[in-house]
Amino acid sequence: MLELREPKIVTELPGPKSKEMLKQRAENVPQGVSNIVPLYIKRGEGALFEDVDGNVFLDFAGGIGVLNIGYSHPEVVAAVKEQSDKFFHTSINVVLYEQYAKLAEKLNKLIPGDFKKKTMLVNSGAEAVENAIKIARKYTKRTEIITFTGAFHGRTLLTMTMTSKVKPYKWDFGPYAPGIRRMLFPYCYRCPHGLEKATCNLHCAKQFEAFFLEEVTPEDVAAIILEPIQGEGGFIIPPDEYIKALRKICDKHGILLIADEVQSSYCRTGRMFATEYWKELGVCPDIVATAKSIAGGLPISTVTGRAEVMDASHVGGIGGTYGGNPVAASAALKVIEIMERDYIAEKSLHIGKICMKRFEEMQEKYELVGDVRGRGAMVAIELVKDRGTKETAKEETNNIVQECWKNGLVVLSAGARGNVLRFLMPLVITDHQLNIGLDILENAIAKVSSDALAYNAT
């Protein structure tokens, strides 16, 4: 257990032990495997971690959305130990074990949709998305997939192709997979059509008419896939009416609607699944892919869909050696139990309210803060040099990230333009810790804003 419940910096950063270990990394790990902060973790608890030099940090990155119930939750540790004493692994494709079907049953009940569902288990978000596409193509007997600008779906060949941002994810990794078509995402703060949300009359959804005439016929489209809230794209929430329009388009043309809930699921948005907000609109996806926080850090992901869709594959067509590993599945069952029992979704809403209030106050004080947005504890700040032109403040964003970790707070940037601060703090964070983190963040924004003003003045 950590002795401290708040951040504390006791050495220069990075500390001497981290510096020494960084030499080993440089010698042995490809440079393409990036990292945000040059620190080595020693242990973690809740929303904090201690590095090898004794510095303690608040983690507003949460393992990129994986640590919704915090570092090494003791009940999950116990569940992992209990299963490990029995067996680590036997492939579901050879010998059956109860955790696989048990977790599938739980997800079939939890994921929105008043219809019979089935679930398969794999290992990563990208693998879940890739299997969702395979299944959609198999069921519809169609080949084309529609994805969106700003999307992030993974780094395998297929999911990299579906991902929008070229650098760093796609640069020089082509040629890309065939059958992927891209639509403009309704990014209302930066409307790609130059319109205003209040008066646009849902112009973005109407673009499908031309798209189906000029780019691809709807009869060839197997699925439309999108994130309920774009993650790497900058925590962009599509308008409710747009989601309803997508469902109508899919129903009209026999196209499947796939929700990539890899980052937005497991209480992050104030619901167990972000698509629960869709259900309130009368919309349910045909397939949902989830991952990240399902098992508190162990690698497992899921594909849940309409039973007739999921059963479209022939025997042996889907699966994999490690898919639904029994240790990871045991952890996932315990994580979901904790989330339901401890009202973690409600905690997410509470965190989100505190964050948005502070963000709005910062927006009033600092011209650098152009937009604040989010749902539950999936919240973000978009930074701009000029609110009128919305010129992006990428350098300032990077400087704020650096300033934060030097003062004990780890945060992430995002967005196609690299000018969004996104926050994925563990949902077990205390109000005291949250406010300390927000203070560090505001101090960083104030400093960078002041530096920018001084530079412009010269």
UniProtKB/TrEMBL annotation:
Source domain of life is Bacteria
Read off the InterPro entries from this record. 4NH2But_aminotransferase_bac, Aminotrans_3, Class-III_PLP-dep_AT, PyrdxlP-dep_Trfase, PyrdxlP-dep_Trfase_major, PyrdxlP-dep_Trfase_small
Q: Which GO terms describe its biological process?
A: gamma-aminobutyric acid metabolic process
Reactions listed under catalytic activity: (S)-3-amino-2-methylpropanoate + 2-oxoglutarate = 2-methyl-3-oxopropanoate + L-glutamate; 4-aminobutanoate + 2-oxoglutarate = succinate semialdehyde + L-glutamate
What is this enzyme's class at the first EC digit? transferase
Name one molecular function that GO assigns to this entry: 4-aminobutyrate:2-oxoglutarate transaminase activity
The EC number(s) this enzyme carries: 2.6.1.19, 2.6.1.22
> Which CDD domains has this protein been placed in?
OAT_like
From the UniProt record, give the pathway where this protein acts.
Amino-acid degradation; 4-aminobutanoate degradation
Q: Which UniProt keywords apply?
A: Aminotransferase, Pyridoxal phosphate, Transferase
Q: Which Gene3D superfamilies match?
A: Aspartate Aminotransferase, domain 1, Type I PLP-dependent aspartate aminotransferase-like (Major domain)
Q: Which cofactor does it need?
A: pyridoxal 5'-phosphate
Instruction: Identify one Pfam family in the record.
Output: Aminotran_3
What family classification does the UniProt entry report for this protein? Belongs to the class-III pyridoxal-phosphate-dependent aminotransferase family.
Q: Which NCBIfam families match?
A: GABAtrnsam
Identify this protein by name. (S)-3-amino-2-methylpropionate transaminase
* Provenance organism: Anaerovirgula multivorans
